[in-house]
Automatic annotation (TrEMBL):
Gene3D superfamilies: Cupredoxins - blue copper proteins
Cofactor: how bound: Binds 4 Cu cations per monomer.
Domain Plastocyanin-like: residue ranges: 10-123, 136-286, 416-527
GO-annotated biological processes: lignin catabolic process
GO terms of molecular function: copper ion binding; hydroquinone:oxygen oxidoreductase activity
Function: Lignin degradation and detoxification of lignin-derived products.
Reaction catalysis annotation: 4 hydroquinone + O2 = 4 benzosemiquinone + 2 H2O
GO CC annotation terms, alphabetical: apoplast
Top-level division of the source organism's lineage: Eukaryota
Cofactor(s) the protein requires to work: Cu cation
Protein name: Laccase
InterPro entries, per the entry: Cu-oxidase-like_N, Cu-oxidase_2nd, Cu-oxidase_C, Cu-oxidase_fam, Cu_oxidase_CS, Cu_oxidase_Cu_BS, Cupredoxin, CuRO_1_LCC
Amino acid sequence: SQALAYRFEVKEATYTRLCGTKSILTVNGQFPGPTIYARKGDIVIVKVVNISKYNITIHWHGVKQPRNPWSDGPEYITQCPIKPGGVFTQTVILSEEEGTIWWHAHSDWARATVHGAFIIYPKHGTNYPFQKPDFEVPIILGEWWKRDIVEVYKEFRATGGEPNVSDAFIINGQPGDLYPCSSGDTFKLQVHNGATILLRIINAALNHVLFLAISNHPTIIVGTDGSYTKPLTRDYISIGPGQTIDALLEANQFPGRYYIAARAYSSGVNVSYDNTTTTAILEYDAAYNNASSSPSLPCLPYYNDTKASYSFTSSLRSLASKDHPVKVPLKVNHRIFSTISVNLLPCPVNRTCEGPNGSIFAASMNNISFVLPNIDVLEAYYYHIKGVYGKQFPRYPHPPFDFTAEYQDLRLEVAKLSTQVRVFRYNSTVEIILQGTNLVSGLDHPMHLHGQSFYVVGSGFGNFDKHKDPKHYNLVDPPLQNTVVVPKNGWTTIRFKAHNPGVWYMHCHFERHLTWGMMTTFIVKDGKDLKSRMLPPPSDMPPC
Ligand code: C2O
Ligand code: CU
C-alpha cells in the first residue's frame, strides 16, 4: 500500500445551469468535485483548506476508517466544523473497500455541490472479479437548485415544513437536453462499438431515490458500496442517496445515440416530488458525425413504483467467492429493533410552522429525534466531557404499535428531541432491524452507517415478524453495503461486527430527514490490546 496526497480547497465558483448563473460551493472550483483514485489498502491524506465563508466538514462515504474516527467527518459527531480560513488534514485509511465509493460535505446541505467520486482499484497483482473493462467513467447523479442552496436550507429550517424541491436532476453536474437551456449541458459518453465500460454510479442527490436506465442497453451490476456482487443483469437500477453501484455497459447495439436517463422514485404519498428526467447521451463513434439522429428514451419505472424499486434492491447478492468471502455474524450479541419515522412537533411560540396543521416536521429512530450537540460526540467521549450525550438510545420502540397500519394514533406522531447513543463492546456482533412506519407518511428511507459496512440479511413489507421473518434471512450471500433503502411500510435487517473502535453515525441519507433528526450514533469501545484501540487524535482537529 502507498500514501497518496490530495489538496481540497473548499471555495466558491460560478456555474451556469438552467438558464441562470450562480455561485456554488466547490472543491478546487470543480463541480462535481475531483475524483480520488487509490488502491485497496492505501492511505490517502487530504489537506482540506476552507477558503469559503461557510463552515464545512468532509466525509469519505464508504471508508471504514479503521480505528480512526477522527477523519470521518460528520459535523458534531466526529469533529467540529472547519471554520472559514481553517485547515484540517484528514487521514483516510482504506481497508477492505474495493470499487466505487464517494466523498461529500457533511455539514448543513453543502453536500449538494461538494461531492465527488472515490475510486478504489484492486491491489497490485490482483484483478477485478469480472471481465476487464475497456474504460471506466463515474456517473454522478445529483440535484440542481436555481436558488442558493444555503438559502434553501435556511428557509427549510425556518419554516418547519417540507424543503423546496430541486429544479433539476443532473448527471455529472449537467441536467441534460430535456431541460431548458441545457442542450450544451449534457454529459456525453462516447464509445467504440464492442467496448465494455465500467460505470461507477453514485447517487449524490439530496432527497431522492433515483431510477436509472440506458436505452437498449441493460447493465450488469458487479458491485455496490465498495464491495463486489454476483453479476446481475438489469434493464434499470434503483439507487438511494449515498449508494454506489458498479455496472458494466456493453456497447453492442446498433452504433447510434442512446439516452442514459434518471428520474425520481418517490414513495411518499404527500411528499412533493420531481417528475423531470435528467439525461446523458451514450454515443457510438460511428454516430459522432450524425449528431442529428435523436436518441431514444429508455423505459423507467413509474415514479411511485415501490415494487420496481424493491425488486432491484432485494436482488443484490455478495460475490461470496474464495477471494471475497462473506463474514456475516451468525450469532448476535446486540439486537436493536428501531422504527424509522417521520414525525411532527408542536409549534414553538413565535415561529412559523408550515408542517401539517401548523406543526413542524421532525424525524426519528425509535421515536428519538436526534439533536446534534455543540461539541462533537467523539471528542466528548474521548475527553470524558459530561452532559453532551446520553447512552439511552432505546433497543426497541415503546410502546410497540402497529407500525404500518393505515391510520395511526396521532399521539404517536410526536417525537422526543434528545441526543442518545448506543455503546457496543469491541468485537460484539450487532443486528439492527429497521422498521419503517406509516406515521405522518410512509416512505422509503436510505439508511447509512459510518465506520463499518453491514450485511443486509433480510427485508420485507409490513411489520417485521420476529417469529417468521428471521427464518428467511440470507446468511449465505447477503450484500455488503453501507447504505440500504428500507422499503416503504416495510423493514430491513442488517448485521455487522463492531470491530472498529470509535464513534459512528447512523442516519437516513435523505438530507431533509437527517436535518429532522432521523439518526443515532454508535460508540464502539476499545478492545484490550493496543491494535484494537482508537488512534490518538490528530493535532489539527478543528476547534469547537
Ligand atoms: Cu454519505 Cu453520513 O453520509
Ligand atoms: Cu428517511
